[in-house]
């Protein structure tokens, strides 16, 4: 993000993103502090539960509904279309999650969907 991402694009340096799903936040699983209480990811996820994070979730929900895809799939597909991103790193704890994550590689997001997600995260 920001100047470092711009530099990588300018210098043609590929970026492999870490925590591509923001510790699970971008899956839509965590929508309030109550959703994180007592969970191992509580500290990592709670920082995203602010106005910006909720805007991002709302945009993800809209694009997910339009595309018929899970929020995690949309999030990774968005990342894959960003200049400079070589590959996002995401983890799965079961086969259905892995299959869902793999779908993101072939998911085509419209320019409108990309713009909506970009605006939400700005």
UniProtKB/TrEMBL annotation:
GO terms for cellular component: cytosol. Residues 4-120 form the NADP-dependent oxidoreductase domain. It comes from the Bacteria. Pfam families: Aldo_ket_red. This is Aldo/keto reductase.
């Amino acid at each position: 993000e920001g100047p470092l991402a711009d530099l990588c694009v300018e210098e043609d340096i590929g970026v492999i993103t870490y925590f591509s799903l923001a510790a699970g936040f971008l899956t839509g699983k965590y929508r309030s502090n109550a959703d994180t209480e007592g969970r191992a990811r509580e500290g990592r996820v709670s920082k995203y539960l602010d106005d910006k994070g909720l805007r991002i979730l709302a945009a993800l929900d809209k694009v997910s509904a339009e595309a018929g895809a899970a929020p995690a799939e949309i999030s990774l597909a968005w990342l894959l279309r960003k200049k400079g991103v070589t590959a996002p790193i995401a983890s799965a704890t079961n086969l259905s999650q892995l299959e869902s994550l793999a779908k993101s590689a072939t998911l085509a997001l419209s320019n409108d969907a990309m713009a909506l997600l970009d605006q939400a995260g700005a």
